[in-house]
Task: inverse folding
């Protein structure tokens, strides 16, 4: 019987130890939660910047890249802000992209979360939608 008394004492000690350890664990997790979220935010930001670097390198190489035109268009607008559609077409062609006014207008209709068209007629301008997925832009 004395062995069982010892086992019961050890189990009670284990219970108290584990309960205390679990509370400490949860308290430490709570302290680390904001740090973990910050880490995730930094990872997401690094991924976004890495992808933008690749697009910028493709544009600067002035070669067709296989990257969708709407992403290349967004990359240019991130750097420049609002542009006339005609100027954007000329710019994309300069950087080796196959672009036309019709393609740009189609992209703005297909990706309304990313782009906004301002003005009418020949003076239409395109800009990044401030609520879109490519980020904010400087307006000129």
Result:
């Amino acid at each position: 019987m004395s062995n069982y008394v010892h086992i019961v004492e050890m189990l009670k000690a284990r219970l108290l130890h584990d309960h205390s350890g679990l509370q400490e664990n949860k308290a430490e997790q709570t302290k680390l939660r904001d740090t973990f979220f910050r880490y995730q935010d930094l990872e997401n930001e690094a991924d976004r910047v890495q992808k933008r670097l690749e697009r910028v390198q493709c544009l600067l190489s002035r070669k067709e890249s296989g990257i969708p035109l709407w992403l290349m268009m967004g990359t240019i607008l991130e750097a420049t802000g609002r542009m006339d559609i005609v100027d954007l077409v000329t710019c994309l062609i300069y950087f080796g992209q196959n672009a036309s006014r019709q393609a740009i207008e189609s992209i703005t209709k297909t990706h309304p979360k990313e782009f906004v068209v301002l003005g009418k007629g020949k003076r239409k301008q395109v800009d990044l939608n401030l609520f879109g997925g490519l980020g904010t832009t400087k307006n000129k």
Remarks:
- The radius of gyration is 28 Å.
- Residues 1-61 form one domain.
